[in-house]
Amino acid sequence: MLNWMFNWRLSREAKAHEKMRNTMLNVISANGMKAHKYFPGVGQHDNNELYMALDWLAGHGFIITDKNGEIVGKVATANMDRCELAVLRRSQIKLVESHTHSDGN
User: Fold this and answer.
1) Residues 18-33 pLDDT 10s
2) How many C-beta atoms surround the C-beta of residue 78 within 10 A?
3) For residue 70, is it left (φ>0), alpha (ψ between -120 and 50) or beta?
4) pLDDT band of 76, cuts 50, 70, 90
5) What's the pTM?
6) For residue 49, which of 23, 57, 65, 80 sits 20 to 30 Å off, Cα-Cα?
7) Distance from C-alpha of 77 to C-alpha of 86, rounded to nearest angstrom
8) How far apart are CA 75 and CA 73, in angstroms?
9) With contact defined as beta carbons under 8 Å apart, do 43 and 92 qualify?
10) How far apart are CA 74 and CA 52, in angstroms?
């Protein structure tokens, strides 16, 4: 019973958060602006420590630049449509080669 109540409260809070986010994005849009999200770790999955550092710092308001002053990662609009989201997700895919023998070893 307690678990159900906890999940219900989290669900309610998540819906309230989403409603507030949408309201604020509408205010931004009505004033001719766009909100963006920053994904610094895109393409950095080779180095887990670096990926985690980039993600943590971005979550705390930092924008990361490389040695040339270029922003690391990707910046995307906050209200991405499905196509934009698919492109972003595809850019994060890392192919891993598996070297197996045909005899199963």
Assistant:
1) 889 889 999 999 999 9
2) 14
3) beta
4) confident
5) 0.53
6) 80
7) 13
8) 7
9) yes
10) 15
